[in-house]
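Batch manifest, entry 17 of 40.
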Amino acid sequence: MRINLGIDVACRADHQASCADRTGVVLWAGYRFRTTTIDLQQLWDRLPAGLDPAELTVVMEPTRNAWVPLAAWFRARGARVVLVPPEQSSDLRDYLNKHTKTDRLDSRVLARLPMLHPEGLHLEEGFGPADALKRGAKLHSTLVHRRTQSLARLDALLEILGPAWHSALGADLANRTPLRFLAAGYADPHAVKRLGRARLARFIYRHSRGAWGDKHADALLVSCAVNS
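Output type: structure tokens
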């Protein structure tokens, strides 16, 4: 027994659902619910008793992002979720406006679409914007991992340059001041000595926004003297 559940998705108001059988006969219509576990379970309980979830087709329009949690909930229970693409929605609205004097794809129309307009339905297997969020989170995780590896490599190279350097830079390469210092070519003790105390102090003061000053400049010059 195939059952179609049409859901008129709302962003802030109540959603509306209508249920129809495979022949298009509406079993019930206009049931209001919210995107909560309790409401969704009550909606599920209204479906015919003994219904195989695989026999249920849920039809929705992709209204903003409000359809995503609904699709996830029904798919988790084994139902088939299909969406009406925007271009198909526009054609259907034009048709309805011409023949019924209304262009609204309400839950009754959506529940009967698998029979009336099967070619206008697309099986939804992803989670819309949630897929993009997942990709973004994975990219962020990859960048964090690469950054951690790079900092560990720099830390190891700094230890090779000399323990005094490691101590002078505070052993915190996540701080941008040591990174700017090293990237400017001052990993060479002779270059730091040529720079001089005054210019070195101004350099680290500027790039640390006042957090570092003469004390750190003196420590760096001492490390140059030890390791040159």
